[in-house]
Amino acid sequence: MSVQHAALPEQTESKLSSLKERLAAMRALSTALAKPLSDEDQLAQANDDASPTKWHLAHTTWFFEAFLLKRFLRGYRVFDERFEYCFNSYYESVGPRQPRAKRGLLTRPSAEEVRAYRAYVDAALGRLFEGDLPQEAAELIELGINHEQQHQELLLTDTLSLFAAEPLKPAYRQASPGVFVREALPLDFVAFDGGIYDIGHDGGGFAYDNEGPLHEELLRPFKLARRCVTNAEWIEFIADGGYRAPTLWLADGWATVKGQDWQGPLYWEDAEGGYMQMSLLGFRPVDLAAPVTHVSYYEADAFARWAGYRLPTEFEWEVAAASVPVTGRTLGEDCLRPMPAKPGTGLLQMFGDVWEWTASAYLPYPGFKTAPGAVGEYNGKFMANQFVLRGGSCATPDGHVRRTYRNFFYPHQRWQFTGLRLAADA
Q1: How much is the average pLDDT of 97-109?
Q2: Confidence of residue 176 (pLDDT cuts 50, 70, 90)
Q3: Percentage helix, strand, coil, to 5, in the chain?
Q4: Domain with residues 13-164, CATH architecture
Q5: Which of 106, 279, 311, 393 could lock onto 359 through a cystine, CB 3.0 to 4.6 A?
Q6: Kind and range of the H or E run holding 63
Q7: C-alpha to C-alpha distance for 169 and 280, rounded to whole angstroms
Q8: Got the DSSP string for 244-304?
Q9: In 3-state terms, what secondary structure has residue 343?
Q10: Phi, psi for 329 (deg, rounded to 5)
């Protein structure tokens, strides 16, 4: 994921107070998300894409220390100089770091020491607000808030990846037993006119750098499915031989399917009586009416071709999203899993539930320039070989998504809450 931001307006006392409150609430949420996990849970790393909870908690703390406190808090003393190697993520300009795939080997510092590190940095962040806060410092705090929100979502998806690999299949949070029985809303489409549209962030308020500059895109008339693709529809795809038909797949996708023996979405198991799925609520029957999730771009593309449709471009998605409010089932809804679409008019589930794959490669917008310094490494250097996702998920913190938000992953990755919505030419 990446970052850049629009300049904040000049700071007033009320704005600084709001910023301080938001910062404290965000930091407290990270601690609360880790609370159900034992110290042993927080150390383990299930795969090369995931990171241990302890690492997420420490890395987001190091981010504030390295980019904010060392520059703007007079007399600040680094908690432990060795932590920079342990908890730097991918900032080449900062220095060497623990390899991503080996973060689970960091048995030291302990989880207790990481909690002490967070408390130390939180106290220092509080002192930062006692004096005059420079504009640049306020902007870095805003960036740090959004950065840690990204890691809050990763903390949950990485925990799911870990628990799915456990033979005991533990639940992150216990839920009532039973199977949901409901019908999905009909699959129908909403049409949109073609034309020249403004795409990207307009510069008002915070945004990552990859969301701009604002520019024009020409779109032909198109239509977008009212809701996301459901688990029941995916089961039809499986039953019809979708994972055995090479003509449905991109060449790299088919090679991945064969090489990794994919037969369904990640965390699914074909059990007696129907499909089961590992979730943050434990090992449960698949909810047929809920959006399918934990599918790769390759799978989403193959399903769309099987269904006789296609994936939307990110520009189509953004134009369509302008017709609905930026609300949905995100982390504050406390579902911890995608839920069936609620009856309504217009487009449904555009925000929350699942990140939606688009057909758009993750590339810079016209006129894009990386920010100077280390924070410029946040987004731009990843603009190759990845695809854009839009809309947020059930694990995305409240207030973190926007209509212009561009998430991005490699086409084979599926450990995040990734799903899809169908599109077609109108």
Answers
A1: 97
A2: confident
A3: 40, 15, 50
A4: Up-down Bundle (1.20)
A5: 311
A6: helix 53-64
A7: 10
A8: G-GGGS-HHHHHHHHHHT--SSTTEEEETTEEEEEETTEEEE--TTSBP-S--HHHHHHHH
A9: coil
A10: -85, 90
pTM: 0.95
Q: Is the peptide bond before 109 cis (omega within 30 degrees of 0)?
A: yes
Please check whether residue 56 is in contact with residue 151, taking contact to mean a CB–CB distance below 8 angstroms.
yes
pLDDT of 124 reads: 98
pLDDT (tens digit per residue) in 309-350: 999 999 999 999 999 999 999 999 999 999 999 999 999 999
pLDDT at position 179, please?
62
User: Which superfamily does 189-425 belong to?
Assistant: paralog of FGE (formylglycine-generating enzyme) (3.90.1580.10)
Rounded to whole angstroms, the Cα distance separating 86 from 109 reads: 9
Structure tokens at 302: 């193959």
Cβ-contact 253, 302 below 8 angstroms: yes
Q: Which two tokens stand for residue 50?
A: 């995931």
For residue 8, what pLDDT is reported? 44
Return the CA Rg of the chain: 22
Looking at the chain, which residues constitute the CATH 3.90.1580.10 domain(s)? 189-425
Query: Measured between alpha carbons, how far is 6 from 204 in angstroms, rounded to an integer?
Result: 7
Size of the chain in residues = 426
Token reading at 232? 């029941």
The CA-CA-CA angle for residues 301, 396, 156, to 5°, reads 95
